[in-house]
Amino acid sequence: MREYFLRRLLLIPPTLLGVTFIVFLITRAAPGGPMERAMMEAQMASEGGGSSGTAQMGGGAEEEQIEENEEEYGYDKRAPIAYLGWLGVIPRERLLSKADFRAAGKDKVGAAVVTDPDNEVVVVLKGSGREAKVVREGEGIVSATYVDSGAPIADDGWKVRVETIADRKERWARRNGAAVDDAPENYSDRAVAFKTRFSGLLQGDLGRSRSFGDPVWSLIKDRMPVALYFGLLTALITYGVCLPLGVIKAIKHRTAADNLTSILIFVGYAIPGFALGAILLVYLGSRAMLFPMFGLTSPGFDELTLGGKILDLAHHTVLPLICYVIGSFAWLTMLMKNNLMDNLAADYVRTAVAKGSSFRVAVFRHAFRNSIIPIATTLGQLVTLLVGGSILIETVFDIQGFGLLQYQALLSRDITVIMGTLTIGAALLMLGNILSDIIVALVDPRVKFN
């Protein structure tokens, strides 16, 4: 059995790679991505400024902004290379600083000094703002030195390459889905200075959100407590109520108590959580004013005492928590009831009763343990509470949870947030499946994994 679980653990990395690579390809191909939004904004800006669209997209300021977005999200590279950079397996280019060779450079006092503007250019380095003179020969770099000191910029970790006219036209064609011959003719060769560093999943860097402007990992960490809070409360209430209720329904099958509870739980199961939330907000929030209508805390929450904070949090929790738990009652209760009824009718239970065991002992010592096995297969999934949540319920109650973060990322096509949340969720899901197998093996000694 140890070898089985070891194999399962070793399968997690390749499975996670496959899942994330597929989603990575989908997000790049899906319409409405960050590059399309950037191009739309650039087009609107050019139209608003009354300038020519071709001129703007052929080396203008708007194209520079689009190129920065491409370099940030890896759209300037082929998909496999960009994915490896996102993983952190290969270094990514950062602080890209560019200058066209066709323009004459300037020395440190601002005078034009370049004797051959086709082969020399001054690049302003991002981050430090220092100027570097780059000299080329063909497509190779002869030297790259600081203008103010003459020292090689390579001493500070800078690298330089030449991006030719053909390279720029190919990039334009790939971006616009057009032929290379349709690219603007006002391109020229340019020097590109950059630094490289490993910044990906393996280094704990999930990128920066385009919509929120914050690191993705920070956004996820801020939302995890909310997901964990509601997830734990939902799990405790659901399992704490449904398991005993399922036992009672199995023992009192076809009685008035069984029929009445069945009606109630199936009515609750039929009502979507978000729809129930809207109803509760209207009648208990807006009209009766018994509960707050949005948020998880009041505006002056930080100024309250500890007891006041607990009461305020509980007051805001009641309505969304009802919506979270209402849909889980039916399947768990009926699963417990049906499993217990099947085991109560089994021969081993009748044998135990015939040997003198009380009905209570037969139920809880013999039948209950076997009845809990199907439920134990889902217990490992509780680890996904860290990234759980309901998109619709959190939207209705305006709770800044994990589900709402994913929903907002999908609406804005925030690729870095989508990839970050999916990676963490997929990893926890696979760990949960392994934990479920372990729990089943502990509950049922008959189970052997090979």
Layout: helices, strands, pairs:
Elements: H1 2-29, H2 34-49, H3 53-57, H4 61-73, H5 79-87, E1 92-100, E2 120-124, E3 131-137, E4 140-146, E5 159-163, H6 165-176, E6 190-197, H7 216-251, H8 256-270, H9 273-287, H10 306-326, H11 329-344, H12 347-354, H13 359-371, H14 373-376, H15 391-397, H16 402-411, H17 415-443
Antiparallel strand pairs: 1-6, 2-3, 3-4, 5-6
Helix pairs in contact: 1-17, 2-4, 7-10, 7-11, 7-17, 8-11, 9-10, 9-15, 11-13, 12-13, 15-16, 16-17
Our count of domains comes out at 2
Q: Low-confidence spans: pLDDT under 50, at least 5 residues?
A: 50-57, 103-115
Strand content is 5-15%
CATH architecture of the largest domain: Orthogonal Bundle
> Radius of gyration, rounded?
31 Å
Taking strands numbered 1, 2, ... along the chain, how are they ordered across the largest sheet? 1-6-5
Task: Please summarize the sheet with the most strands.
Answer: 3 strands, antiparallel
Short account of what is shown:
57% of the residues lie in helices and 9% in strands. The chain has helices at residues 2-29, 34-49, 53-57, 61-73, 79-87, 165-176, 216-251, 256-270, 273-287, 306-326, 329-344, 347-354, 359-371, 373-376, 391-397, 402-411, 415-443; strands at residues 92-100, 120-124, 131-137, 140-146, 159-163, 190-197.
Question: How would you describe this protein?
Answer:
The structure is a single chain. This protein is mainly alpha-helical and 450 residues long. Strands 1-6-5 form a three-stranded antiparallel beta sheet. Strands 2-3-4 form a three-stranded antiparallel beta sheet, with no helix packed on it. The N and C termini lie close together (6 Å). The longest helix is centred in the middle third of the chain and has 36 residues, at 216-251. The protein has helices spanning 2-29, 34-49, 53-57, 61-73, 79-87, 165-176, 216-251, 256-270, 273-287, 306-326, 329-344, 347-354, 359-371, 373-376, 391-397, 402-411, 415-443, and strands at 92-100, 120-124, 131-137, 140-146, 159-163, 190-197. It folds into two domains: 94-197, no CATH class; 216-443, Orthogonal Bundle (MetI-like fold), CATH 1.10.3720. Helix content is 57%, strand content 9%. Residues 50-57 and 103-115 have low confidence and may be disordered. Helix 2 (34-49) runs antiparallel to helix 4, helix 9 packs across helix 10 (306-326) and helix 15 (391-397) packs across helix 16 (402-411). It is elongated and about 100 Å long. The protein contains 17 helices and six strands.
